[in-house]
Amino acid sequence: MNKVSLALVIHSHQPVGNFDHVFEGATRKAYAPFLRLLSQHPGIRVSLHYSGILLEWLEARHPEFFDQLRRLIERHQVELVGGGYFEPILPAIPGRDKIAQVRKLREYLRRHFGVTPKGAWVAERVWEPSLAQPLAEAGVDYVVLDDTHFLAAGLDPSDLHGVYITEEAGLPLRLVPSLKALRYTIPFREPHETLRILSDGMGRSSALFAMGDDCEKFGVWPGTFDHCYKNGWLERFLEELEGAEEWLETTTVSDFVAAHEPLGRIYLPTASYAEMMEWALPFRAAGEYRACVEEAERMHTSERFLRFLRGGTWRNFLSKYPEANQLHKLMLEVSRRLGEAKARAGTDAFRILGEAQTHLLASQCNDAYWHGVFGGLYAPHLRSAVLGHLIRAEVLLDELEGAKRKTQARVATKDFDADGHEEVLLDHPAFGIVVRPAEGGTVSSLRFKLADVELINSLMRRPEPYHDLIRRRAAEPETSREGPASIHHLVASKEANLDALLSYDRYLRHAFRTYLFPASKRWEDFGYTRLEENGELAGAPWSLVADAKAEMPWTLTLRREARLRLDGDEQEFKVLKTLTTKVTGKVWRVECRTSLSMNGSARAPLALGLEMVFNLLAGDAPDRYFQANETRHRLNFRGEIISPNLVLVDEWQRVQISLGGDPPPVWWVVPIETISQSEAGFERVYQGSAILAVWKSEEEASTNAVYDLQVAVSPWTRSHSRR
What we know:
Shape: elongated
Radius of gyration: 28 Å
Distance between the termini: 82 Å
Helix content: 25-40%
CATH architecture of the domain at 4-275: Alpha-Beta Barrel
Number of strands: 28
């Protein structure tokens, strides 16, 4: 009798930059108890995948975990699966980095466990047809992808119980379908429901039922630790698998692939799992897509339509979130520089190049580049970690370029992020800047290399599809349910009244944005986006007056002409914004001079505001604060500060930012707080502080005025706090 084969591929990962207590909690709640229970059932065979960053942490903190894993490998109960070391979205990184990521994890597994993985875990199952070639070149024999991919290619559900083969440029790769039906019953339904699905394979020749999913669903997701371990679901599940041994066997994917010929050749479309393709859609399209899915689900023949109904592709996140796109393009820029450095470097540079490559690969960790239920774009500490690795790679590459780079900056005017507009990139051993003339003449990146810190690193507040759930939850009482819910169906909040905090921005959160608005406005109007500012000045494209030069001090001038409408009158005015930067010792200075000229004077008092955005990550931490007039305020402070100088201090990242102006401005400060979704529910997240330097004219505005804002960035030392 041919037995039904069950191949479970359990994936474990923590993002680069995640908190140590999160690693520890996931190990205690999921990784360790899952492995411990598996060891008590030696007849149950599985394939396990761990990302490199998680393996490094386990090796350092829990060597006993490695010992137990080795024992399971030695008794042929567990197969280790490879993949990208830092869990990148493979289609989104350069080809040479794809191969480097896979080979790095393969070498780690060989060194620590004595095995060479045959398979590779594809992060978030994001597939593009061109992936077959680099994976095959990296030595990968098979990958596991969602049944969504195979159904979209034209297979019937009955065709999903075996292995297929694809190729790119003649290089073959085997593909294994992972069944959504199993993902949604394990561990959320009683074990017999999974056995009923598996029994559909009885009587078929060599029927494979494969499932690839996260280990975190066995203990980390809300309610699953009690469900899986205290209430015994996982123990019962393994026992029922053992009890069905007459017709069911558990196997590793590599053993099944080795023993069975492919069912046929297939070419899969670009795809991921269904939820990811929904999250990737723009806001309005996501709502339409959800309505289409729900309408199709009500049809008697719903599966006939749903198999061909797909959302967007993962790359849509780079369009949906310009912040993710900038992060991605900064990564590509570092990858390009590293490739050029390798081509011209001698053997004496191998160590530095190796360190730079490790930082580059770490910066490709996927979590900070997207957002759904799991994606960490809304988590500033994850963005900060990725940016920190990019900056450290930049510093190492600067070191290779030697003495010339100590006195000169690298300046490029180009469309580096492929948005159709030219940016100005300034790179120096002490700092990096991205200026965006087309986006209000703003600065979107201020990288202080002496502390490995991106100072802006903020996020625009924008509508998300789940915000409607928050509003509905505020209006309707929550209904209770038995047992844990899948993370895709969970609706929970970490605090009450989040609906009152939903507010959206008109502009991306960049620095040096210029506002011209009625002088009657107050700081509260800035906080609630009620300034009634001139939109042409704040958000429209500015013109470059002249190309920037590489010599220091570096100067760039931007120009904008606009029309001012007040009390029914319209006046033309011109603004010049001159950015100047230089380094003195360890102090990086940036000055923004704003020259405003009008044809005549305005008939009502006006105010000019220059907005700075800084994100020092923790709004309520005592070691990060504003300082003015010998008074400290935590970073989540909101209000007006009257002081000639305003200082931001981050004792944890060891950086200090000093602001001043001529004439001295008034400082309006508001925290930028998003309401976003995570595994644990809806939460408020501090995304930095917006600081508006405000100069008001109490009478009619003069025809010409000049305002200076000075920024000084330096490493923070303990001696600063004693001054």
